[in-house]
Amino acid sequence: MRPWTLAFSCLLLLAACAGPLSTSPAPAPAIPAAQAVTPQVSAEAASLRRKLATSVPQDTSCNAANAASWIDPARAELATSSLAMERPQLLAVVDRNPRRQELCILLAEPNAPWQVIGGSRVSTGQSGRRGYFITPTGVFVHGGGIVDYRAEGTFNENHIRGLGLKGMRVWDFGWQQARKGWTRDGGYAEIRLLLHATDPDYLEPRLGRPASKGCVRIPAAMNRFLDQYGVLDAAYNAAAPADPRIAAVLPLGQQPTPLAGDALVVIDSAQVSAPR
Predict the structure, then answer these.
(1) Is the torsion defined by CA of 209, 210, 211, 216 positive or negative?
(2) What is the pLDDT of residues 75-120, one digit of tens each?
(3) Has residue 163 been placed in a domain?
(4) Total tally of structural domains belonging to the chain
(5) I need a surface site. Which of 7, 78, 168, 220 has the fewest CB within 10 A?
(6) Which three-class secondary structure state does DSSP give residue 51?
(7) Which domain holds residue 260?
(8) If DSSP codes are grouped into helix, strand and coil, which group holds residue 42?
């Protein structure tokens, strides 16, 4: 192992032991002034960017040219949450704006400029249909207290595989308040907020427009990327040795990045302050 690689791994291991994200109820501290990105972090980010570009079609606005349109609202959401960025880590940021409907993976650093890694098209909650909810904005932590699961790949009564092919990962962010998309009074109810793949034949080609009942649908290629590199699995990998249920969810041969995080951030670029 190269000396810088060992040092980098040890640094991130110490940070991980302290917890990927602080859950203190106190407001998140202000992000420090930008400093130079460390070579180790920059190299890992570049590696992830290459891997994502070769495995997931990059037909999105998630790129360096549009970085500010992703980074600024993501920072704003984090600033209003109780979570603090304490180390370099990845964020999965979803824009529910009906005109965007994309996921963008960001590298967030407490002491350096944030970076764009890459993204994909998604589908979030659809309005105008009874039983369909508007995907809530905010910061949602993927902790070890809820166990994910995997799609069975079975068809429903409409011959649709709602969670995608068998084995696709389903990330579970628990019960969340969401606005009813079919009412005018803005009523709210609880939904189970999930991040998951969708039917590869009928629904995946339609990603890029609101269509779900409130969850976030992603393409199979992005599902595999998040799963293989443990993008949202910092807490899961820490808990897996002591919890066989979590260990069973993680894929065999997973290659978790040392920049793994835990947070799904949902923004709405069409609104200055989106309702929860």
Answers:
(1) positive
(2) 999 999 988 888 999 999 999 999 999 999 999 999 899 999 999 9
(3) yes
(4) 1
(5) 7
(6) helix
(7) 54-267
(8) helix
For residue 216, which of 132, 100, 124, 120 has the smallest C-alpha distance? 124
Q: How far apart are CA 228 and CA 268, in angstroms?
A: 28
Q: Is residue 255 part of a domain?
A: yes
In a domain, 33, yes or no: no
* Cross-strand bridge partners of residue 180: 133
pTM beyond 0.70, yes or no: yes
**Residue from 123, 124, 215, 131 nearest 181 by CA:** 131
Check which CATH number belongs to the domain holding 144 and give it: 2.40.440.10
**DSSP reduced 3-state for 266:** strand
**C-alpha span between 94 and 120 (Å, rounded):** 10
DSSP string, 64-101: GGGHHHHHHHHHHHHHTSS-EE-S-EEEEEEE--TTT-
User: Hey, which residues does 140 pair with through a beta bridge?
Assistant: 264
